Amino acid sequence: MVKTPDFLKNFEAKHPGIYGFIQDTVFSLAVVAVIAAVLYLYAGMWPPMVSVNGISMLPNMENGDLVFIQGLSRGDVQTYENSTATNYTMYNGYGDVIVYEPYDDASRPLVIHRAIRWVKAGEPMWPGGPAAPWSGYITLGDNNHGVYDQMAPSICYEQPVKKEWILGIARFKVPYLGYLRSLV
C-alpha cells in the first residue's frame, strides 16, 4: 500500500473541501486521458472525430452527427466501384465515406463524402469529363444528385482528392453530439 505523504495529510485535514475537489479533478482528468488514449489507438490519428455540417450526406449522415474516423494507416479506402463487386457497404451505400481537406487547404471546411472511384493521372474523372491532373479519388455526397465534388466549383473543382488530403475514413456516428463538438 502507498503511504500518503504527511504534507498531503495536513492539507487534507486543514482544507477537506479543496482536497476533495482536487481529487475529483485529478480523477476526471485521468478518465479523459484514458478515453483519449483509447480513441487515438483506435483511430491512429488526432482528432479522431469530426462533426457533420450540412445536408450533402442525407439520409445516411445528418447535420449535427459526430463521426468517428480512422486514419489511412488503419485501412485502405474502399471505393464505390470496387465495393459493388465485394458487396461492401458503409452508411447504407457502397464504398467508404472519407473526410478530406479540399485542395489540402486547412482554411476550407472539411468535406465528408463517399469515395466513388480512383482515377489515375490523365484518365477522365467521369464519363466525358476532363482528364485528372493527378491520381486521386472522385468523391460524391449521397444527397448531391450525381454532381461529383470535382464538378462543383465550391468543393474540389476538377481535382481528384489526393491521399495526402484525406484525414480519415468514417467508421461510425453518434447523432446530435456533433452539435456539442461544434460549440466547443
Q: What are its keywords?
A:
two-stranded antiparallel sheet, 2 domains, 184 residues, alpha+beta, elongated, six-stranded antiparallel β-sheet, 4 helices, Umud Fragment, subunit A
Count of separate DSSP helical elements: 4
CATH homologous superfamily identity of the largest domain: Umud Fragment, subunit A
Shape: elongated
Give me the CATH architecture of the largest domain, please.
Ribbon
Domain module count: 2
Helix content: 25-40%
> Radius of gyration from the CA trace?
22 Å
Structural summary, described in words:
This protein has 184 residues and is of the alpha+beta class. 28% of the residues lie in helices and 21% in strands. A 6-stranded antiparallel beta sheet has the order 1-2-8-5-6-7, with helices on both faces. Strand 3 and strand 4 form a beta hairpin. Helix 1 packs across helix 2. The chain is elongated, with a radius of gyration of 22 Å. The model has no long low-confidence stretch (mean pLDDT 94).
In a nutshell, what does this entry contain?
It contains 4 helices and 8 strands; from the N terminus they run ααββαββββββα. It is of the alpha+beta class.
Write the layout of secondary structure elements.
Elements: H1 6-14, H2 16-43, E1 49-51, E2 66-70, H3 80-86, E3 89-90, E4 93-94, E5 97-100, E6 111-119, E7 136-140, E8 166-174, H4 177-183
